[in-house]
Queue: 2 jobs
Job 1
Amino acid sequence: MACFLVSTAAAVGVTVAQKIVAKKENKKVVPEETEIKDYKFGCETKWSTRLKYLATTLWTGSFLLAGEHVIHGEVVPFPPFLTAAADPTDAAEMLHEMGTVGVAMCALLIVAWGVGAFLCDLIKFRKHKKKQKPQLEKEI
Amino acid sequence: MYFLTALVCTIVAGVLFFCFRDRKGLHLDFLTITFGAATLMWLVDCIACAIGGEPFLSFDDPQDGWVALWTVLGGIGLWLVVSFVLNNGKKEEPKE
């Protein structure tokens, strides 16, 4: 009915958070070519970039689902915009669906993003380890 | 039906992203994320339907075809617009 609204609200929040984090990161300007001395897991990717991917996931998913709702006639271009909102019984059902299906959708997207971000960091970490191995062997 | 459409689109976009991973200008990661997100969201919808006693996948609704078409065209359209903006929206640095 309006389950995509939960993800849309989350997307707005994440976009705002991403902008704030990006501003903070831009204040600490680090030259790109300088090597990272203390390499830590996940230090290669900025948090603003990670949040940008999460925002993209939430926005695009909500966009396609919104289209589906428009085709099914659940979203209309005139007030109250959601057909279910016109009737109190339907409105209660809609809120229940948003609380269950909508929240589950949003949670699954966040989990998928978390897994994806972790895998990206793991791949980069392994690449870094592989690069370091011959250097360490030379030193020995 | 549109869940399956989105799933197929995700797989195709994912394969294309892997094949052309060096060509950043194509922004195929965006296309994969778009379809992937929709797939996950409809997966939850399908599971909710199955829990509610309805079939997991239904092909009865005559509007399903339109939604499937929207999934493909909407995703590709969004990707084209975003790619165009990202590729042309960067400000050129002043030459010294």
Job 2
Amino acid sequence: MSTRTFGEPIKRNEDRRLLTGQALFIDDVELPGMLHAAFLRSQVAHAKILKIDVSQALRRPGVVAAYVADDLGDYWKPGPLLVPPPPIAGIVFNQRTQVPLAKAKVRHVGEPLVMVIAESRYIAEDALDDINIELVQLPAVVDLEKGLSAGAALVHEDVGSNVSAHVHQTKGNYAAAAVKADCIIKRRFRYEHGISSPIETRGVVAQWDGRANQMTIWDTTQAPVFVRNGLAGMLGLNERQVRVIAPFVGGGFGPKIMMFYPEEVLLPWVSMKLNRPIKWIEDRLEHFFATTHERGQIHDAEMALTRDGRILGIKDVFLHDGGAYDPYGLTVPINSQCTLLGPYVVPNYDSAFTQVFTNQTLVTPYRGAGRQHGVFVMERLLDFAAHELNIDRTEIRRRNLIPADAFPYKNEIIFQDFQPLEYDSGNYEPVLDMALEAIGYKAFREEQAAARRQGRHLGIGIACYVEGTGIGPYEGAKVQVQSNGKVSIATGIGTQGQGHFTVFAQIAADQLGVAVTDVDVVTGDTDQFYWGAGTFASRGAVVAGNAVNEASKVVRKKTLKLASDLFECAEEDLVIEDGKVSIVGIPEKFVSLGDLARQANPMRGAVQPGTEPGLESTQYFGPPRGATANGVHAMIVEMDPRTFDLKILKYVVVHDCGIVINPMILAGQIQGGVAQGIGNAFYEKLAFDDQGQLLNASLADYLLPTALEVPRVELGHTVTRSPLNPMGIKGAGEAGAIPVGPLFAQAIEDALDLKRRGVELLEIPLSPSRLFELTRHAPR
Amino acid sequence: MDTDDHEMTVTVNGVNFQRRVESRTLLSDFLRHDLGLAGTHVGCEHGVCGACTILLDGEPVRSCLMFAVQAESREISTVEGLAGIDGEYHPLQQAMHDHHGLQCGYCTPGILMTMTAFLEENLSPSEEQVREALSGNLCRCTGYQNIVDAVISAAKRMRG
Amino acid sequence: MKPAPFKYIAATSLEQALSLKAESGDDAKFLAGGQSLVPTMNFRLARPAILIDINRIEGLAAIRPRDGGGACVGALARYRTLERDSGLKAMFPLIAEALPHIAHPQIRNRGTIGGNLSHADPASELPAIAVALGARFHIQAAKRERWLDASDFFVGALTTDLQPDEMLVEVELPLPKPRAGACFTELARRRGDFAIVGVAAMVTLGERDECTHARLTLCGVGETPVDASSATDVLAGRALTEETVRDVAASVQTLIDPNGSVHATADYQRHIAGVLTERALQTAYQRACNGY
């Protein structure tokens, strides 16, 4: 009797290739005759282009071509709008999308001006120095408030302002609620998220084969199907002529789903023009400018409460830095707006934001995708309310939690899936209780006092959040039993390390009675699977996983039907396990899956009308809306009260993402997310000057946490099934990263006694130096 | 314009290679593109991320900070040489698999080379020592915890 | 981030290396460990026309005893060699304590003392320690040589007294006085990062545990290592007390003029310089008392 693999910590199918250096990443693609691209990128944030002279570059031996915007002719056009504005009344949206090469104006540092093609990347970079550029620098829009004030330089003159979008969403009536409040907490918050900085940067290889009339593109994209569709259209090719392959990708985290990056648009065009394969690999310096960021928001927020700490309503007005172009619509700030509500009952909500054009790299989702900002505002407001009302910080949260019997819970305002925000299921109080138990909250006060007597400054933080995951539109999967008895799965999404080769295999293995290691998974190759959206918004397992499940169920049915015809018995009398179908109780009467598969594809003879060959099925799954996961993070830190150096002593995550397919992979996702959250809260800061120059564009100065900065994370789980999909699962990819900012702020305030000393932490990221500056005038 | 080319000989994973390289070709590029050993990955080209770590005469070094010509007559070990000829995992590779010490796998070769060398010197490391040894390799996916567990587990197995 | 073209020569002898450098002057750079030079070349911030690889020069990495006590460390000695030399570490606890803060193991396998000192990064630990130990540098050119105190070697940020045709070939480290205690401590954002502030303190005691001699050197707070030993004058002939240590720290804070960076404001650096001075002095004193 084979054991079920669903729900088990099955080790990964994909590991061998990765462990032995045999996995294909983008820069491993080597093609005969391949040329290399390098880009001359703007060194200034905002300028008019007067002149670009590439003649000297073209004379360099080994240089094959150099292109500017005008060389592209009709091919030059602004990219498509990927995410239209959601259907919200009164919305203002000024669509201005990125261009393949800057024309007339540059709008951010790093925007590409010239593409050089040469025999090697070394020579291509040499040629960049040969290019003569004349720019007239313009004042750069960097500060959000200054960018909206009269007389500010305009990123897009024809918009007439630097407003990219304005959105106002309401639930109930905040003004009426505030009148009845016993307490109003009002603060200004600044939250900056950073850059994804995966260890592998981006890359594109394009190969036009003029004889086969076929374009093959390798791309570190999280959305190969959309890239294929868009590029086919741009290049004037049929979709079928374009194959996009997302190979193993060394970390995605969101920015690799942005499209169309200039390089994605340009490399295939050049390959067709020169009839040679072309490769571009982003170097680390480029990555700081050429791959999208998340950055900052400024929130003026207020919360109205009763004297026993119940939230009557929240009003929030915020500015969101969108960068120079807005192809990704409003996903990030809408996430902020919606995720702010958290696991709490907020009867009245008035939230308005302005997305501002700035002369900086585009902002598109990066793990958390704006949720961090909203959670920071909510959790901080609750902390300050708790202090003002003299209520324990965990008690004030508990009092406001949405009760377990209130699901599905309607929050009314529109979410990034274009649906009114609705929490599908959840049971929040036990999650809080488990986290408090695990961190030792009750005993902590005494421990803290005892430590203080020894001169040690310990502090504790608790933060709660709800995360919308697993949104549509849909994904598909093809599952097939092969003639060797192994199962093959193909799906349209790509993979960046989240274990799809294993998780999808587990789902099929359970349905089809095979070993997980006998299921091979192909992802991210548009020739292997035509349809899909991509990996984003913690949706891979939910949406593609359910598609795999549906397809597997159909294949199971076909298998049983064929075997029942073969054995002339009822399907109920059959069992599938260990790669065989046999009659219950008569194990010697069996047929292998491989044999069945061969029988399902006869080489001769006739078949019944309507027969489909093989044991194969393609099914799609699209949820009606996103499933909501939730969690609580808790942390104990020790602060050096003189240097403000910080050490994490204990870190707990209790998380509910519904039914779990592979707890080992889930734990890895949370641990990785927490590490990025720690980076965001205390180490990673993009340091810009007032002309939009990034002062720390290297990994020496943009500080990613190492093994010495990330603690062990203790994990706990609860399970509330999602009613929105047959497997009952919810997404989990971003959970670790979301509430870490307010957690740090709260724990540091606690460790340094800041409430008593009158200092509030209203910003992220923090650092020892920043804490020194914020507290230097406070009483001891 | 003539390039400054040099003839060189280098041993990689026990195999001797003779090549002609331009002096400025980085060792990382030489291994990956000239020799086709693409298991060593490039993450930053300024010596911080550690993805390009290989062993030079048994010592972990950053191949992005060396020129290929500097490897003349030296012995280099890369991730491709770690498993046995029949594909049998090094204990650390096995432990990384068992403990889910890799997700996207991009930083993994650099970590394997760094930590197998570390284990050669220290078969009973404390967790703190493991984390210190690991601190020169950036991972953006795992949060390091499972990698630490893998190293400690491999050490135990290698102690016998 | 590929480097610009250069001509590469692997020198086989010191004479050859020095003669090549004399010919080319500033057009050429010595390649030692490369851990500082190659990143700048990959960023194309440095574009030497000629690279003279000195890694194969015999004898340049040697560590030998110094006449009159202490040790002479060849410029090509790698950090790793020092880490493995327990005798050397015992003789110079300041070096032993600083080594784990210097970058990471992979860097330490290649980086050399000479390379680091010649690069003269203001936030680098070793220049400050060389000054603290009263090191003397042996410098050679094709047709001349000279010795220079460490404190005269560092002239500005990334600038030394080395002439275009000169190479630092050896560092002479005198043995610390008997009954000396030392402490190196630094604050950085992550282990191995350049110091936001680093302090090297050495305290020598007399028979009654009074300070007879103290040295205080800081890195990261000026263009060069800052010798703040004058701030310790108040300690002369007395035992260390909490109050005198605070006075020394306050005095150090007035001696330095830090620049600030993306990681720390100048005021924070000044504040930390005070805190680390107190801690380093206290620890150095304790160690001297305990015979460390």
